Amino acid sequence: MDIKSFIMRVVKPYYAAALLLALFSCQSASRKSFSEAASADSTAVAITQAAPSSNMIMPLNSPARRMLRTASISARVEDLQAFTMQVEGLTGNLHGMVLQSTLRNVEQQSNTYAYHGDSLRMITVYQPEAHLELRVPAPMLDSVVHSIARWAPFTGHWELKQEDVTLTMLANRMKANVANKAATRQLVTTDKNALGAANYQDDKAQENIDRQVENLSLDDQVAYAALSVDLYQRQVAHTETIINAAAITRAGFGTALGGAARRGAMILRDVLLGIVTVWPFLLLLGAGVVVYRWWKPARTA
């Protein structure tokens, strides 16, 4: 066998092996690119299917809409305490909840007059007020407001409001789905940076939790409407007899007379002591008077 035929017999298998290796690498790269493209396409299709179409707008009265309802009412009542308890009882019967119930008497004015020798008459004018914060089932909100207005002799105002949060809740769900897919892609493409991928997933998980909690809060507010109630009663006068402290602590006549005599003696004592204290000045004054009387007749003569 010559050298040329030997070389050709040995080298050809290596060429074949190199060719097969290159072909396998190209196929693997193509499969990876196709897999990533398919994943991106499926994500886009999911988002498109989840997004509402402009031709599929729900009617205003559709039960699928998520409506957040609130209301407020103010009224004047005859018996504030009894009316407040009646409203609280109605809320409990409807399986609602009283979040806050406040009753207070606001003082308007107060006057005190003499009544007897040892007592006074105090008249206080105040206005009873009450404030309630209620949560009632949303379908029963209108009934509760109308019942309060019907029971009260005078209604100052009432207000019913509702807000459509359907799109807000849908947006939260769509963002959560997109974030989950993005987090998966980020984990695949950043497997060389394990710490960065873990932090990224933690951030996305926290965002998903926040959106889910927000949706749960909106679900609760949609199911149970918030009602604010302000009640007041006409001014009420409260009269009571109180002790005249000045009259009770005043001394009797005999005691007062003795005290007056003692005070007079003390005053006389102080006057005498004052006179004795200024005796030199009194002596000079007397001498001046004598000199003046002696000098005046001599001058006229």
UniProtKB/TrEMBL annotation:
Membrane-traversing stretches: 271-295
Pfam families: DUF4349
Keywords: Membrane, Signal, Transmembrane, Transmembrane helix
Keyword Membrane tagged: yes
Domain DUF4349 residues, every copy: 65-293
Superkingdom of the organism of origin: Bacteria
Endpoints of the signal sequence: 1-31
PROSITE patterns documented for this protein: PROKAR_LIPOPROTEIN
Protein name, entry field: DUF4349 domain-containing protein
Species classification: Bacteria, Pseudomonadati, Bacteroidota, Chitinophagia, Chitinophagales
